[in-house]
Amino acid sequence: MRIVLPDKVKFLIEKLNQYGYEAYAVGGCVRDSLLMQKPKDWDITTSALPAQIKKVFPHTVDTGIAHGTVTVLLGREGFEVTTYRIDGEYEDARHPKDVFFTSNLYEDLKRRDFTINAMAYNDSGGLVDAFDGIGDLRKGVIRCVGDAEERFSEDALRMLRAVRFAAQLGFGIDKRTAEAIKKRSRTIQLVSAERICAELVKLLISNHPEQLLKAYETGLTSVFLPEFDDMMQTKQNHPHHCLTVGMHTVETIRHVPPQKTLRLAALFHDIAKPKCRTTDENGIHHFRGHPLKGEEMTGQIMRRLKFDNDTIRHVCKLVRYHDDNPPLSAGSIRRALNRAGQDAYPALFALKRADILSQSTFERESKLAYVDEYEKIYHDIIQKKECFTVQDLAVNGSDLIAAGMRQGKEIGETLGKLLELVLEDPAQNTKENLLEHVIK
Ligand code: ATP
Ligand code: MG
Q1: Would strands 23-26 and 69-74 be described as parallel, antiparallel, or unpaired?
Q2: Distance from the alpha carbon of residue 149 to the mean position of ligand 1, in angstroms
Q3: Total count of domains within the chain
Q4: Which of 403, 387, 397 has the alpha carbon at shortest distance from 435?
Q5: 371-421 pLDDT, tens per residue?
Q6: Which residues surround ligand 2, an ion (CB under 5 A)?
Q7: Statement to judge: residues 348 and 245 lie in one domain
Q8: Whose CA is nearest to atom 11 of ligand 1?
Q9: Domain residues for 67?
Q10: Does the CB atom of residue 249 touch ligand 1 within 6 A?
């Protein structure tokens, strides 16, 4: 088994060898190389202690020195070089509370989460695979190194990582590993929101986001995203739908491009449906007000999961307007743009299409045609640089004051009225014309 190491990685390993230390590429980069995928980064594991690593290389940064990690700079590139170690209990961060250095590679591989992540490689030693990671790569399974329950009791986040890797690689989860997750799923509550959030995002933007269902089946979402479980348990008796809210949501996630905000918006777009469901006299379900209530719930959930404010704002907006269907006239669409703000576009179209494709086929063609036309008119408005916000008006507050209006809330009200005028007819947006209106 040969892996082609980048020159810089070869250099790092050879240099450490020259000083009498062992060194290997390890973890994700070995896994990805064996899968013929390009690794995101190359991590090195070595028998050298941090102080010794720093003596070998002139340019280093103490990224995680207490845990044995030194970043070695080669030109503009940084490589994490970590001493062989045995981990104590994990705490909130991504590092264990205490670590013990060892000179035995096997001990280091043993502390790693899954067999496919516990392989090391260098050109002289070849592949070091103590736990049949290669067999699991071939079979396509995520399996814990050692006893799954024990490994999850050391660090509960590994349960969600198992699902995340399954989603990224399109793998199954080994039976005993999956059973251990089921048994210990409640303990995911011990893990910090930040770590959960990072794994959830990786899962969502992966090639197989439908594996979120595995997090549901094993009981993980019931702890960190119980609102998803509510969606899974909410039926929709309606001609436009054939799936539960939860299954419809998973389909919608699959149908939007793998971008963070879009996948999150798809996850949350119907989050309030379980709370908003009513049943009419014919037994048909309705979900009135779910976009607005959904915006509120999305904000609460995302704050709980410690997302950054920018992402929260953007996702909330998409949730709020996902079901906004203005009449297909330029005026109405300029008003829609004014309501949602331009930064909701064109993401909103991707979300709307995915939503439609995840509903029943009832009226699907006409619903898609509506979005096409909506988008066409939108592009036209943008291309012509037509006004759809107060800031785009040909007059501002100072102009009104200069024209003789008194300072105060009247100014804002007047600008609002002028905007109404211009939203309907962009040709009206000249300073002369607007001031004339004000005087009248
Ligand atoms: P990615 O492509 O997402 O970076 P990766 O395999 O490199 O995948 P990292 O989170 O960067 O994953 O971790 C690097 C390596 O460290 C893993 O391959 C694994 O061997 C080990 N590791 C990371 N987190 C844990 C953990 N919580 N428990 C045990 N081992 C872990
Ligand atoms: Mg990595």
Answers
A1: unpaired
A2: 18
A3: 4
A4: 403
A5: 999 999 999 999 999 999 999 999 999 999 998 888 899 999 999 999 999
A6: 28
A7: yes
A8: 28
A9: 7-132
A10: no
